[in-house]
């Protein structure tokens, strides 16, 4: 009876942090994550993991997260460490200084954007184009077109291409914001939607290589929900994007070719193909026969890290499990030395000794030991492999074409257990390494 009460209390507590709009209750995937005393990283455990001057015992934190996730009350601040915003070996004073510096930097960038588009920072956002392709305000452009018989206005020839491109993207960001996590009560507020729009708009202005690409909204939304300060949400998103940048570059260019400087989703799909071929040659051959050997049906899962396959709560749980398992304490110094928007730092990664190895997540530890820590060998790829393995029999028996593959994989929505999926991914990783090392 007590256990049942605790289970209900756990679910009710989660609902107070991420309430769902009543009319959307039946449409959202079922949440499987439960707060578990003694396993979930609690606020008390989190506080106890810091030394008197603020240095974090990251190894104990990772163990706890890998056992039971993070309590919603501290999720945002824990994520900042998992994503490399802060060095676990820094002090409270050092982090406060860095936090203030970053907030000031974000405010400066936001003011820069406001000067070009005043609606930024106003609590409002746009969903219709504010400029035409010539860079002029929509109304001005129409009038010029009528006067000049459609010829390009002279002034626009001198316009900054970057500014025009950025302004052209703002309404698309707005359209995506409206569609983002709309089942959450949080996004009933236009001010909260505008906060997401502001973060994405500022990011799009700063990232010269990518700008904005659909899907970024799904990655950014949890940061805006979890972190009260908009600047903190921005930096958390920026760090998350460093992990995913190559994927978005390829998506934006609408091709799946690897270049010498980018190894995004295509490389991950190639790795996925190699994994399935090694651990389940029969399934791989079947997918090849269906003309699915490039594994493009898995693109979305990798692109937005399973956001569509899980409930909001379970997606957050999955992410923190993955980030904890992939964690390397050198991530802060590696990112801090990189230029903004770059996929990785230009410098070389610090060497990993035994002390550092103990502070790595279980997936990263194994990867470092075997020397296979390339980005396209990320845990997410093994996670997709674990999903394919759970659907092995169904795929072999029922999939007669790629549409069937997509439909069968679509059936996992709301039916995946994040913890089990990660554990299966680790087993597949171990199995794959043993097979490839033999050959």
TrEMBL record:
Domain of life: Eukaryota
Pfam families noted in UniProt: RabGAP-TBC
InterPro entries xrefs: Rab-GAP-TBC_dom, Rab-GAP_TBC_sf
PROSITE patterns the UniProt entry points to: TBC_RABGAP
Gene3D superfamilies recorded: putative rabgap domain of human tbc1 domain family member 14 like domains (1.10.8.270), Ypt/Rab-GAP domain of gyp1p, domain 3 (1.10.472.80)
GO MF, one example: GTPase activator activity
Stretches assigned to the Rab-GAP TBC domain: 69-326
Protein name: Rab-GAP TBC domain-containing protein
The species this protein was found in: Ficus carica (Common fig)
Lineage summary: Eukaryota, Viridiplantae, Streptophyta, Embryophyta, Tracheophyta
């Amino acid at each position: 009876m007590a256990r049942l009460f605790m289970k209900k209390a756990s679910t009710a507590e989660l609902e107070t942090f991420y309430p769902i709009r009543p009319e959307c209750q039946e449409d959202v995937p079922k949440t499987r994550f439960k707060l578990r005393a003694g396993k979930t990283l609690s606020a008390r455990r989190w506080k106890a993991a810091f030394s008197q001057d603020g240095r974090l015992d990251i190894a104990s934190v990772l163990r706890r997260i890998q056992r039971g996730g993070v309590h919603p009350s501290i999720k945002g601040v824990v994520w900042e460490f998992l994503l490399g915003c802060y060095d676990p070996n820094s002090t409270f004073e050092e982090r406060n200084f860095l936090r203030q510096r970053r907030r000031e930097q974000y405010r400066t960038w936001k003011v820069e954007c406001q000067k070009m588009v005043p609606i930024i920072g106003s609590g409002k956002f746009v969903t219709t184009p504010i400029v035409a392709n010539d860079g002029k305000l929509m109304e001005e452009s129409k009038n010029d077109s009528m006067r000049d018989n459609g010829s390009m206005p002279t002034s626009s020839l001198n316009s900054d291409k970057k500014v025009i491109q950025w302004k052209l993207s703002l309404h698309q960001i707005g359209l995506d914001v409206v569609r983002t996590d709309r089942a959450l009560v949080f996004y009933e507020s236009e001010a909260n939607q505008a906060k997401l729009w502001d973060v994405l708009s500022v990011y799009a202005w700063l990232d010269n290589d990518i700008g904005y690409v659909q899907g970024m909204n799904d990655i950014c939304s949890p940061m805006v929900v979890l972190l009260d300060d908009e600047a903190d949400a921005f930096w958390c998103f920026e760090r998350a994007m460093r992990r995913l940048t190559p994927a978005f570059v390829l998506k934006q260019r609408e091709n799946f070719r690897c270049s010498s400087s980018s190894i995004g989703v295509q490389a991950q799909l190639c790795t996925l193909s190699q994994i399935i071929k090694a651990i389940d040659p029969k399934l791989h051959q079947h997918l090849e026969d269906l003309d699915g050997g490039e594994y493009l049906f898995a693109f979305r899962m990798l692109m937005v890290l399973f956001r569509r396959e899980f409930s909001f709560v379970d997606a957050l749980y999955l992410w923190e499990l993955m980030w904890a398992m992939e964690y390397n304490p050198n991530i802060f110094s590696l990112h801090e030395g990189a230029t903004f928007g770059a996929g990785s730092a230009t410098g070389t990664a610090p060497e990993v000794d035994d002390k550092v190895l103990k502070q790595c997540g279980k997936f990263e530890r194994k990867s470092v030991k075997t020397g296979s820590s390339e980005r396209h060998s990320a845990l997410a790829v093994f996670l997709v492999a674990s999903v394919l393995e759970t659907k092995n029999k169904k795929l072999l028996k029922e999939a007669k074409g790629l549409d069937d593959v997509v439909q069968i994989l679509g059936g996992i929505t709301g039916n995946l257990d994040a913890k089990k999926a990660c554990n299966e991914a680790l087993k597949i990783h171990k199995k794959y390494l043993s097979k490839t090392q033999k050959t």
